[in-house]
Structure formats: structure tokens, C-alpha cells
What does this fold into?
Amino acid sequence: MNVVPDTSVVIDGRVSDHVEAGDFAGATIYVPEAVVGELESQANEGRDSGWDGLTELQALADLADDGEIDLEYVGQRPDADEIDDAGEGEIDAIIRDTAAEHGATLFTSDIVQSEVATAKGITVEYVEPIVEETAVETLTIEQFLDETTMSLHLKTGVPPMAKRGELGEMHYEEIRDEPSTEAQLKEWAQEIENSARASPDGFIELSEPGMTIVQFRDMRIAIASPPFADGHEITAVRPIVKTELDDYEFADELRERLTDHQRGVLISGAPGAGKSTFAQAVAEFLADADFAVKTMEKPRDLQVGPNITQYTELGDEMAKTADSLLMVRPDYTIYDEVRKTDDFEVFADMRLAGVGMIGVVHATRAIDSLQRLVGRVELGMIPQVVDTVVYIEEGRVEKVYDVTTEVKVPEGLMEEDLARPVIMIRDFETGQPEYEIYTFNRQVVTVPIGEDSEGGGQDSGVDRIAKQEVEREIRSVAHGHVEVDLKGPNTAVVWVEDDDISQVIGKGGGRISDIENRLGIDIDVRTLSEKPGGASGGTGSGGGGDSGGGQPGQIVTPEVTSRHVIVPMEGHAGETVEVQADGEYLFTATVSRGGEIQVSRGSAIAEELEQAIDRGKTIQVIPS
It folds into this structure.
């Protein structure tokens, strides 16, 4: 009897079982090199199936040595592309061809393989696949959990650690003196995976070489192994608080706001502050209020009722999930973990399509979550995308913002012709404005007003922006040192070198008048020699080697093209930054979605930047 086993029965150990049971006694077992290659690939990726299969091949070799069977390895070893396409049937096709070539019986527990081989006239022996009924009611790792444990951290060679305490007052602490061993970690990981597969309360969220994420009851469990991690590690996270919207401040007002019409809401806060717990409470409230509610999560770990369907990435893209959701027509979608540019774009697209959107965002201040939209969404569209910001701190609603657009003169500016669209961020409780976001001289600025303007000092809020813009304008025509002092909301004194004063003022005061009209600020131009105490070497917002207050910056190498000077800022999309040359302020800009700043050649800013490059100055970018 000739037998060709496929990968499925080799992994299950069924070939040696049949030999020992006498079913294949004296048979010639032809093992395709395609099976060996697939098993080796799986073992190299750290997958148990690969190791199980290699163990079975060794068992067949031992049976051959004992004379129970004849064992031969046949065929060509598959190339990398064929192994990568195993899921598309490439390896299965090679195995069927091997069986046909040797006139052998194809032995398989793969029903698709069996049906295809039968259709091709190949003799097939099919056995039911082994289903491991290893689900357990209680995982072994649950011995480390108590009612105050939010997360459990297990790693080879390290004593078990846990985050325990009340929401907002968590402590990372050692919970056992004895370090975990590699054997323990592997045993616990296998138990977790098997239980997730066998239990209706669990599923495998992600399975990649070196990382598996499991959802089992209310626990999200991440299992890491080499080479992805430097050691075997298990991290289990679970909610320790189940809340309702009534448990939070502003519950009545938020209920009315959410049910009035579909909203765009960002729930923000630091890690562990209780953002997801609040999002769950909002989701449950909306579902009970007769809204169709879905979620978008990767991984799925929100603890919501069965009437709320939880979606994850479709084809590794949340954009495809969004397309599918639009067909389902939810009233509200909870988007857990809006972090990357793609996430914000998907959030914005769904909101502008009329779906109520509630996004969970990491931010250390309430305003920071809204600023993350700048550069990712057209400025004028932000209030249509997000009209409410809820900031969570230590499990409570610390701040709620109402976001609207008004056409007005920004706070601190005076000229009527400076009116423009301004995004107003108001305290939801008092109605008092706390921030304004608008474009100032082609740059997007976020200006605190009222009590949040850091005391109204000269170096805060709109004063700081105004000082930078005045200095930028003057430096575009002056060649020497420039300093700026703001004397009021619409008045400034500019100090320049003696040789530059006529150039700055211009014929008949024409040049300085143009600058005043552009900025809406009255400017008094004086020489540095007139300044009490003499030149200070750069007390203005950017004129001097100490500009930036010692903040850490990034040294960059701009690229000069035929039309632009391009400053590379990969990884900083949407951030507002200052560009300096040898510590001297040049201009403020917002990094584009493509991770760069483009300055049109021929502009005053570009000429200044090109001069600095030509003179070999160090170009540095500092967070604004």
C-alpha cells in the first residue's frame, strides 16, 4: 500500500497512529518535500503546528527504523512564494500531484483537499480532524487576579506583576516572589489559545508570528514570544469597573446632547484614565435609547451588550470596515483607539457621511485631542467632524468642550479686516470660550484665552504668536539683529540695527505701513542703540541663540526644489513647529499630512530659509 499524507494529518499525528493501529502496516509512506517545507516554515515562525508536524515526522522515521513502514521523501521543495500561497492551495496542489504520480492513497483530514482530490480521480482516505476540547471554566492565570486587578503581566524570568487599585489610582506591583519559567509561560499560553478556540466566550483576535491576541470572556490577553519579543510574555487586561452614564458628571446634559442629533465626540484622557469605560457607558446608553450602535476596534475589547455588534479591521484596513458599516447604517459608531492619520480620516469620513461618531483618543489635555485633527482634516471642517470633546481623568468627567465656528476677529487682534473663520472651544458648563483655532498669516494657531492663557503674559497665547509674526515680517527686510517688544494687544516696538532702519521703514513709511496693515498691529521702529541697556542678544520670540527656551529640537536638512523649500518632518504630521537657523527664529508652520513643511520659493520666508542654508547655518525644528 502506498500512502501520501498531507500537512493536516502530519500535524495531527494521525499517520503514526494509523501505522501503530495496523491500518498502514507495511505501507510505503511517501512524504512530499512540500509538506516538510510548510512545516519548517511554521516552526521557524514559532507556531506550534510546525513543531507538532516535525515531531510526527521523527515518529515516522522511528517506525521506519523498526521496519514497520518504508519511508521516502519525494518531490521538490517548494519555494518561498509557494509556501506563502499555501492558503491559496498551492501546497495542496503539489501534494495531490505527488499522490497521483506514485499511484498512492492521499491521506488527509482537510475536507476541501479530500473533495478536490476525489474530483480529480485520486484515491482518498479522509479522517475527521482532531478537535481539542480543552476549554476551561477558569484559566490558570486567573489565580493571580483579584477584584482590584486591572492588568496582569507575566514574563519568563520575572516575578508576576499586576496593576491594582482603584480607577485613577493604579499601582504596578510584584504579586509573587518566584519568577515565572519559560515552561509555565508556554503551558499557560497553550491553555489560553485552546480555550479561546473551543469556548463560545472566546476567539483569536490576532495571530501573527510572535504575537497572538485573544479575547476570553472579559479579558484581552496578548501572548508574545521570540523573535518578536525578547522572551515569552503574557499580558492580560480586563475592566474592573462597569459604569452607566448616570455615574458621571454632566450626565443629563450629555444625554440630551447625544440624543438631540448625531454628534461627533472625542473621548480623551491619559492611558488608564477610564476612557474606554466611559465609552462603554455611552454605548450602552445610546443602545437603550433606541439608537443602532456599532463599534470599530482593534483589538475588540469594549465590554458592551449583545445588542451592540463589535467590528474590527476588514482586510487589514479600517477604511474597508467603514465602507461596510455605511451599508449597515448605524446611528452611532464607537471608534476605539483613534491614533493614526488613517484613523482620523476614517473617523472624519464617517462623520461627514452623517453617522454619529464617538472616538477614543489618548491625550494629556482636552485641547490636545482636538489639535490632533489639525493637518488631518480641513480646518473649517473640524466642528462638523467633532462638536464635543469629553476629557476623562481618574475615572470622572473632568472637562467637556463645545466646538463651533464663528466668523470674527480673533481675540487680541483689533482690525476689522482681520475677521476670519475661528473655531471656538467653549467650556460646556459655563459657555465661556477657552481656546480659539484659526489661520494667522497662513499658519494654523491654537490660542488659549481667558484663564487658560497662562496668566495673559507677553509670552503666551495670541501675544506669543503676534510677536513671532511681527519678527518674521521685519526679518524679511532687515539684515541684522531684530527684537520685538509687545506694548499692548495691538502695539509693538521693533528694535533693529542702525543700518536697517531705513530699509524697514521704507520710502515715506510705506514698507512698515504694509506690514502694519497685514498684521493689524501698530509698529514703532527704533534702533537697538536707543534701547535701554542696549541689545539683549535675542529677547524676542526668536531672535538670538537662546531662542526656544532650551527646548529639544530636531536638526533637519531642507531640500530646495524648483518651486519649494521642503523641510522633512516625517512622523510629525499635524504638529505645529518652529523652524530656526542657528537658534534664531525663522517661522512657525504646521507639518503636512505627508510629514513635511513646504515653503514656496520667492516668498520672504523661503528667501530667509535659503540664505540660512547657503550660509551653512544649522536648521532646527522645535515643537511650538
Summary: The longest strand covers residues 396-408. Residues 451-461, 536-551 have pLDDT under 50 and may be disordered.
